Amino acid sequence: MDTVLIGLLGGLITGISPCILPVLPVIFLTAGATQAGPGKAPVVIPAKRSRPFWIIGGLVLSFSVVTLIGSLLLGLLHIPPTAIRWVGVAVLLVIGVGMLFPGFEQLLEKPFQRLPRRKVGDGGNGFGMGLALGTVFVPCAGPVLAAIIVAGATGSIGPDTVLLTVSFAIGVAVPLLVFALAGSSVAQRIRGFRRRERGIRIAGGIALIALAAGLAFDVPQALQRLVPDYTAGLQQQLAGSDAAERTLSLGGLVTDENRELDNCAANAEELRSCGTAPALSGIEAWLNTEGGAPVDLDDLRGNVVLVDFWAYSCINCQRSIPHVVAWDRAYRDAGLRVIGVHSPEYAFEKDASNVEAGANKFEIEYPVALDNSLATWTKYRNRYWPAHYLIDATGTVRHISFGEGNYETTERLIRELLVEADSDVDLPATTNTSDVTPENGSTTPETFLGSAKDHNYAGAGRYGPGEGTFDFPAKQGPDTFALAGAWDVQTQYATPLSNAGEPAAVRLNYRGSEVRVVVAGDGELTVTLPGGGVRTVAVGGTPQSYRLVEPGDASEGALELQVPTGIEVYSFTFG
């Protein structure tokens, strides 16, 4: 029941958000549009009363299919992810032209004349138009949609995911159906004026063509940036509820294989029994094994295993890895086996050579699994970088630690499990790796420039995907960022436009003695510090994080970073 309720609420919130604005005029006008009659002299035939329901039904169906399994199917077929969207744009354009020129519509229908009432244009029930709209209708990625997308991308699609998707789509459909019915009602009211029928049809065709052209040039994204997201608070309340946390399973889908992981409270002080460890599956490649051979947990029975989820550009992982490396070296002879599961946060972290360079930089000698599809991440219901799972000699998960810190407890429990496996084991002295984890709230939270994970943008308007020109605000609050100049904001990063006249810049109001930026590309960053000092940072080679604030620099204030074209800025991290 929670799944249906959360899905419906998430869909309703999305259905009244600014993200639906680009499609509302099309739905309003075409739901009441008329069709051209057959014959050499086309006549106007009133649209069916059921037409709004068919249009919204087609939209919901295609949107659900594309959202849930589109990325999975496209990956299997090696088709670019934007292919379905461009097909939808082309179909909308063709339908719009057909509404303007009945003769063109009839020409398109000739191949289907043998099929009764099979219309290419907007004629009939409008279901085909709804299908086309669904492929280009991409609402704000709220918590419900985010959970569905992760399930689709990882191939972890089960009955609960399908139920969540359907309920979400129904929730989105309710507000859209209201607009469609309103458009149909308006058309019915003026039905008596036959001379206006053609005008309604032309207006619908123009709306479809305008939507297709706008989508081709990312106009809807620019429009959404100008409209405040008045539903953001509702989305946060929904995501923060206990029911949503259980339903969305943001750390991965619950299955019989991982259900007992709930027995392990995160960062607990004592060992627990949390079920047999899920298998390491969906691994694209292995590093630090003989010939790249895979590692099977069943083959490690009798040893204590530490599974470490990490990503090489993640600052939290970079502070945690020295502890894991130290444990590997100290306790390997005593029976500890460490496996690093590299689960990428960014696209460039899927490159095996980049991961290998990162592993060498951190002196990692234990096996590293490239979990590029997040299959193992999902199986372990993980949600953090880093995350540590301790497995005993029988293959049972006994402890889970999320995030930084808790190192003394984790090492103590490693030692307990080693003694449990072999009471005669000769344990070395405990490691003395410094814990440099920042205190909670003492630094600015990790800051993302990609549109998918932004949460502290201080500029005017909504921060969304697409190209645009930005200006620094007159006043900028603490722990926020703002942009200046011409930028192209993508899902995971932002990059300056190549035709920008003025240099593109980021202003960061930060707290922390260490500030790093994750970037890709080649060039030179110019850093202006709070005290007015200026330094340059050369960027090139493997995408990674670079330190901007050095010891002795101001630990808080406004930092300005000038970014040349060719550089992709992913995130800022603080310590």
Computed Rg? 28 Å
Between the first and last Cα atoms, what is the distance in angstroms?
42 Å
Q: In which range does the helix fraction lie? A: 25-40%
Give the percentage of residues in beta strands. Answer: 15-25%
Report the structural category: alpha+beta
Shape: globular
Give the biggest beta sheet. Answer: 7 strands, antiparallel
Please mark out the parts with pLDDT under 50 across 5 or more consecutive residues, or reply none. Answer: 38-45, 112-124
The beta-strand count equals 19
Mean pLDDT: 76
Count of alpha/pi helices: 16
Topology:
Elements: H1 2-15, H2 24-30, E1 35-36, E2 44-45, H3 51-77, H4 83-100, H5 102-109, H6 127-136, H7 143-154, H8 159-189, H9 194-216, H10 219-226, H11 232-240, H12 242-248, E3 285-287, E4 304-310, H13 315-331, E5 336-342, H14 352-361, E6 368-370, H15 375-379, E7 387-391, E8 397-402, H16 407-421, E9 447-448, E10 466-470, E11 480-489, E12 494-496, E13 504-511, E14 515-521, E15 523-528, E16 534-539, E17 544-549, E18 556-563, E19 567-574
Helix pairs in contact: 1-8, 2-8, 2-9, 3-6, 3-7, 3-8, 4-5, 4-6, 4-9, 7-8
What does this structure look like?
With 575 residues, the chain is α+β, with helices and mostly antiparallel strands. Helix content is 38%, strand content 18%. The chain is built from 16 helices and 19 strands. The strands form four sheets. Strands 10, 11, 12, 13, 15, 16 and 18 form a seven-stranded antiparallel beta sheet that branches. It has a six-stranded mixed beta sheet with strand order 3-6-5-4-7-8. Strands 9-19-14-17 form a four-stranded antiparallel beta sheet, with no helix packed on it. The chain is globular. The chain starts with a helix and ends with a strand.
